[in-house]
Amino acid sequence: MLKAYHLSEEKEVGTDEAGRGCLAGPVTAAAIILPKDFTNDILNDSKLLSHHKRTSLRPILENGCACFGVAHIFPEEIDKINILNASILAMHHAIDQLSIIPNHIIVDGNRFKAYKNIPFECIVKGDGKYMSIAAASVLAKTSRDAYMDAIHEEFPMYNWKKNKGYPTKEHRAAIKEFGITKYHRKSFRLLPEQLELRF
């Protein structure tokens, strides 16, 4: 059973990211403040939900929350500042979009950087403990998936519609055959045999 809040009943924002381990596409973060009376029987860590459940939850969360934000950090920036910093920057940008200034931030994972003067707490596996972090994980995942579905149309040979940019055997085989695109993260180990990669 997910807890409604960690410290503060009002204006506590949960934030999470998706796509950190991908070879292509952005890292995407969401931040969301839920009203204290929000309930949902399906909501959970997005990794534990089916595609259908995540997709059906997205409008429920967007319409039922006090406010939310979603932000992408793209490969060019990821390559400059590294994936950890890009993940945290995406969370900061998502919080920037909130129409309510939060009084406390709860973050999935164990790394974050201070956002303005707002106190925060990192919670390992927080997306399986708190509703707002779980909700952020769903919004981040569904928003990123929609982006990957869109760029799949431009480069269908990588099958991003299915693998979403993660390092599947199929994705790596396509990189080996076709080289890389503007959507690939050049700072990542795209192939085990990096020397064979064509830039």
Automatic annotation (TrEMBL):
It catalyses: Endonucleolytic cleavage to 5'-phosphomonoester. One of its GO terms (cellular component) is ribonuclease H2 complex. One of its GO terms (molecular function) is RNA-DNA hybrid ribonuclease activity. It is found in: Cytoplasm. The keyword Manganese applies. Its cofactor is Mg(2+); Mn(2+). Its EC number is 3.1.26.4. It comes from the Bacteria. Keywords: Cytoplasm, Endonuclease, Hydrolase, Manganese, Metal-binding, Nuclease. GO terms for biological process: DNA replication, removal of RNA primer; mismatch repair. The keyword Cytoplasm applies. Endonuclease that specifically degrades the RNA of RNA-DNA hybrids. HAMAP family: RNase_HII_B. NCBIfam families: PRK00015.1-3. Belongs to the RNase HII family. This is Ribonuclease HII. It comes from Euzebyella marina. The gene is rnhB.
